[in-house]
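User: Here's a chain of 191 residues. Predict its fold as tokens.
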Amino acid sequence: MSVDGVAPDSPSDYQHTVSSQTSIGDFAIRLKLIRETFGFSQRELAKRAGVTNSSISMIELGQVSPSIQSLERILSAIPISLSVFFGFQLDSRVRVVREAKQVDGFLRAGDQLSARCIEVAANSSTVPAMLECDASGVILSGDAQLKSILAVEPLGVGDTFYVPTRQLHQFINSGQTPLKLFICSLFTHSC
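Assistant: Prediction complete.
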């Protein structure tokens, strides 16, 4: 049975569908997530794709699996490619930390992202610190030196830096004006 150009899969049609191993539920979840992400109602997507609202509804309810041509037609109305449609993860790996947690200048291992601005007065420096997650940042104003065990690197406005996990480091204001820098811990898989 075909619904407005959205043909269900039959055993003989597998070579014409996106994947014979993709479940109807997978089509349903992916289409609904993408449609909602782009802010389209079922009716709006159907109109843009030139199919009926019931076609979109039946796919999203898992009642029908579209052929590759039908799916391409629907996705072109968003627009999104087949590779993107089947490439994103259905399970959420997004994490949110509402408050940066620091103890004595250390980022705790459970924090996925901690961003902060630091200001260092003229002729002053930060306390030597060691981070539990990789970090990077940028010099916003002033002149600095990034001191580690092996080197001292001069930094100016716009220069970026990277500090690996557990690297003892210190920022030294080498200018006559306040040093401002932005530093952000990076996501780590071990956290």
